[in-house]
Amino acid sequence: MVTASAIKKQLRELIRIAEKNGQALGIGHPHQLTYDVLAEMLPEYKHRVQFIPASQLVRVIDS
After folding, report:
1. With contact defined as beta carbons under 8 Å apart, do 8 and 44 qualify?
2. Which of 33, 36, 55, 63 has its C-alpha lying 20 to 30 A from 26's C-alpha?
3. C-beta neighbour count of 11 within 10 angstroms
């Protein structure tokens, strides 16, 4: 079972990667616990990084 602390750890790692590389892509499962953790942590992190839809970050490469 996934815990709130595990989700927080992953979110912190995602923010670290984004700050280091200028961008990062994170995918979360749509469970209530995920929403709860995001609601708790977003006020702190929205001042450090910009959250955008994945479609704004991912590009299709012509083959």
Report:
1. no
2. 63
3. 19
What is the SS3 assignment for 14?
A: helix
Residue 27 placed within a domain: yes
The model's pLDDT over 8-48, given as tens digits with 9 standing for 90+, comes to 999 999 999 999 999 999 998 999 999 999 999 999 998 99
Domain span including residue 14: 4-47
Residue with tokens 């892509």: 25
Residue that has been written with the tokens 């990084």 in this structure: 49
The pLDDT assigned to 59 comes to 84
What is the distance between the alpha carbons of residues 26 and 49, in angstroms, rounded to a whole number? 13
